[in-house]
Structure formats: structure tokens, C-alpha cells
Amino acid sequence: ILTGLATALAFRARLWNIGAEGQVFAGAMFAFWCQSAVGTAPAYVQITVIVLGGLCGGALFGALAGLLKARFQVDEVIATVMLNYIIIYVLSLLLQQGPWTEPGGFFEQTAIVPEEAKLPILIEKTRLHLGFVLALVLAAILHVALHRSPLGYEIRAAGSNLRALQVQGVNVGRLVLIVFALSGAVAGLAGAFEVYGVQHRLKSGTLGGLGYAGIIIAILGQLSPRGVVIAGLLF
User: Fold this and answer.
1) In sequence order, what are the residues at sequence separation of 6 or more whose Cβ sits closer than 8 angstroms to the Cβ of residue 160?
2) Integer CA distances (angstroms), 226 to 15, 28, 138, 218, 230, in order
3) Which pLDDT score, from 0 to 100, does residue 196 have?
4) CB contact at 8 A, 79 and 36
5) 3-class secondary structure for 146-201?
6) What is the pTM of this model?
7) 3-state SS string over 10-61?
8) Can you tell me the distance from the alpha carbon of 6 to that of 10, in angstroms, rounded to the nearest whole number?
9) Nearest CA to 196 among 137, 124, 115?
10) Average pLDDT, stretch 89-108?
């Protein structure tokens, strides 16, 4: 649902963000780094840090692609796909006998996260965790924002006629940067939730494919937050 929302948000503005895959990794990595810094704090502190870390990591990585597009006119498809490879290899370096490698381990993964950092399970004997509720809340927020806010109007207008939006005096470069940052933030949250809600450790193999699946879900959901939720549940 989250990677579908991230993709749909960018596609609504006709910005072809193929980088949700890399933004998932960036969010998971930044969340892990931030959580590790407060590893002895109470659960509510750690979970808050995880959510904020996932959002910030994805937003920063998404904004990098937006900056390349807005400032240097780099095609966003090329930029986002290449950034996907870069972040995946950075994680591999950190996990392959690197600073995040599980002590005494042989695999590219971190140690299990503390119990206080694990997202609460909603139904026993399932993997349904708090992140699912937050994904639904975020979908509702994005639906309202797209249809009831000035930024949402600009995003929808950019998808219809970017030239007309420029004539109205909108700073298109700023809009591109904001859309990529928001899209990346939502995808980054997906990475953080996968680590702390399902896997309980950071390893690249379990994160791969989430961002690319989000493209399919966004299209099946007709780039609508409500449609994305339905398509995500079907997947």
C-alpha cells in the first residue's frame, strides 16, 4: 500500500518516479540508524524514531532525484533507476562484514532489533502490525491533500498541463522537489515498517521488489489513494 501510494503521488504529477525501490531501502536504513542511536529508550520513543527515520530517509533520497530533475534536467526515470542500484550496493557494503553486520554472523544482515523497537502486532499469530493502520491513515491523508489542498491542486494540475501551471506563476522546480520528497518519504516508511514490523532485522533480500510492486499497485489503483489501498490488499 505504501509503495503504491508513493508511486501514485508522483505519477499524478506526471513525474515518473521508478525509485520507490531505492527509497524503500533508504527509509529502512535511516530508520535503523536512528533507532540504533536510541536503542535503550522506551518502546514509544523507539517506534516514533523509526517512523520519523523512515520518512526522513526516504524523503532525502527522493529529493535527490528531484534535485537532479529540477536543477540539472536529468531525466527522472534514469536518475531514479540508477539511484536504486547505488543505495542497494551501499547497504551491501554496510552488511558485508561492515559496521552493521550481525556479530558472528555469516549473512548480509543485522542482528535482531530489540523487543521495544518491534511494531505492535494487532492480531496474535499473524504479521498484521501497527504499520498497516498507519498506512490506511496515510492513504486517507493523501486523498484529502490531493483534493482539498493548494499543493494537491498543483500536483493534479501538473499532471494535466504543466505549461499552464508555469504560466500561472507556479515554481515548477520547487513542485518537482516537493513531490519527489513526499513520494520518497512514503516509500521510506514502507521500508522501515518491513524491517520493524515483519523481519525484525535489516537485510537486503527482504526489501527487494517492494518498490517495483508499488508501480503495479499504483496503476491498478488508477493513481487514487483509495484504489491503491484496494489493489494493495489484493496483492
Assistant:
1) none
2) 20, 25, 11, 10, 7
3) 98
4) no
5) HHHCHHHHHHHHHHHCHHHHHHCCCCHHHHHHHHHHHHHHHHHHHHHHHHHHHHCC
6) 0.96
7) HHHCCCCCCCHHHHHHHHHHHHHHHHHHCCCCCHHHHHHHHHHHHHHHHHHH
8) 7
9) 115
10) 91
